Amino acid sequence: MSNYRNTFHFTGEVSFPKKDSKNPFYAPVQTDKTDAVKMNFGIKESDHNMGFVEIFGSKREPIHTMNTDNEAIDVAWDDRFKPEVVKEVANYRKYTVDLGKECGGRYDFITQYDMIEFLHNYLPQFKGRVYVTGQFSRQPYKDKYYNHFSVENVYGLSDDDTKHKNRLGVMTDIFYNNKSLDMTDVKNTGKAYLSGYISQYISADKKNEFVPMDFVFNTKAYDMSNEHQKKVYEYKMNNLKPKETKIVHIPWELVMLNGAEEQPFDESTLTNAQKEQIALGLSTVDDFKPKGSIFGNNVKEFRLFKPILKGDFAGGIVKADYSDKDFQDAIYVPAKDESIVDIEKPDEESKKDWTEDMSDLDDENLF
Q1: Residue 189: which pLDDT band, with cuts at 50, 70 and 90?
Q2: Whether the Cβ atoms of residue 202 and residue 332 lie closer than 8 Å to each other
Q3: To 10 degrees, the CA torsion angle through 124, 130, 133, 138?
Q4: Which of 7, 81, 95, 131 has the fewest CB atoms within 10 Å distance of its CB?
């Protein structure tokens, strides 16, 4: 089973929910066992594309975490802010917020509860773009899967930051075979669809299992008369249509589109009447070009950007250590009475041997 940790990195402006929203920016959660808080907000990549993130944190006595030697340790609740305690906790079990000196400065927390309280006080004061990272997972509910983005780090970006381009990025290890790519809709929509699986920890079963996920290869972004773009297209196709008949896997950088996509304007978008006027020399294409941008219907897609060639995947696609039957047996089957909380309960095993990658995505727009 893959130990790759599925993550996201969203860059853009913060969008706060309305005060009467069912998922407010900040809300206490009272249970019989503990006090907890939750937080929801959006990251606007553009006016027409937004990713929604959330955080849940509770008071725990003691706090179960990991030290810098990757060993399980317990921390007393009242000791959680002591510098020597924070220093002892592994970086991958810390939650960092840095919104600049004017908005509380930088803090490394060892609970999401404290990160939420800090963001509640300072995030509304911050003006500008943010870079938000965390864990990505899929949650089943009523025969559908929903995408879940749990925040772990929030960084405020300066006005002159050019490294972090606005983008809703996701990084996940995808399992598929040479029959997973569906090209039947390419002529009509310019899109090919990859039906794959990702591995994630299922707390209810206390192990990693596979959950289904669909991905989009946006072929219409490529001009086949452009030699470079043609090579990029062929490179992606070679990775999406492996020669191996068994299950393979490789991490991919994805770009999430959750909104309306800007559409190009050219002669193909004109009506027959408009084309007739152009043919008669009475008008030009520019005469019919609408003011401002043109946007299509709202879509929710994860577009395949590029494979991540690091670690075990430095050489490319890797064969999965599963027979077809074993792989089918490892696919998660939600229990009818199982709640999202049962699926997503945090576990020390799901965060071992992981460090935050602050490297930015390539700014190429071929996705």
Answers
A1: confident
A2: yes
A3: 70
A4: 81
CA nearest to 57, candidates 14, 11, 6, 118: 118
Q: Check: CB of residue 171 under 8 Å from CB of residue 251.
A: yes
CB 260 within 8 A of CB 301: no
What spatial distance separates the first Cα and last Cα of the chain, rounded to whole Å? Answer: 28
Three-class DSSP category at 327: helix
Which of residues 76 and 269 earns the better pLDDT score? 76
Amino acid, single-letter form, for residue 232: V
Residue holding tokens 């050219």? 266
Cβ density class 26-55: b for 16+ within 10 Å, e for less: beeeeeeeeebbbbbbbbbbeebbbbbbeb
Return d(Cα 362, Cα 8) in angstroms, integer. Answer: 15
Could you tell me which residues come within 8 angstroms of residue 244 by beta carbon, excluding any fewer than 6 positions away?
177, 178, 317, 319
Q: For a pLDDT cut of 70, what percent of the chain falls above it?
A: 86
What is the pLDDT confidence band of residue 357, given thresholds at 50, 70 and 90? very low
Sign of the CA dihedral with 14 first, then 19, 20, and 24 last: positive
pLDDT per residue as tens digits for the range 332-348 = 988 765 544 444 444 44
Digit-coded pLDDT (tens) for 100-118? 999 999 999 999 999 999 9
Provide the CA 258 distance to its chain's centre, in angstroms.
11
Are 50 and 41 within 8 A, CB to CB?
A: no
CB count in 10 Å sphere of residue 202: 22
pTM for this entry: 0.83
Q: What is the structure's pLDDT at 204?
A: 82
309: which 2 tokens? 């060639």
